[in-house]
Write the structure tokens for this entry.
Amino acid sequence: MSKLDKESVIGITALLVHAANIDEIYSEHEKILIKNFIKSYLKEENEDEILKMAEKIEHNSNQLLNYTNIIKQNSMEIKKDIIEHLWKVVISDNSIDQYESNLLRRICGLIYFPDKECAEIKLNLLNKK
């Protein structure tokens, strides 16, 4: 899989934090899943530091969907990986509310990721639980 630079990973991590926060429960388990995303792209970096930076961006940003532009410029393989990480965070609490589903639908639309493939990723992850 091709790489994302540090700035891109921080921006996408902010999007993952946003997905985790949307139900107003930001659990330790969600933080671990987000750190796994960071580690998968930035093996040499301190994932706690990256997470803190991303949390600050997410907290201060009402333009979070700007980060979808970073994703949009990448390969379908990276888009798929990011959507999978987003779904992992969303379904980690065993419930998917309408705001979480809506966020994923909006992100998929903004990055030109097929709805059908997004639904398949979600089903595969739910079946693994």
User: Anything to note?
Assistant: The longest helix spans residues 6-21. The two ends are 25 Å apart (CA to CA).
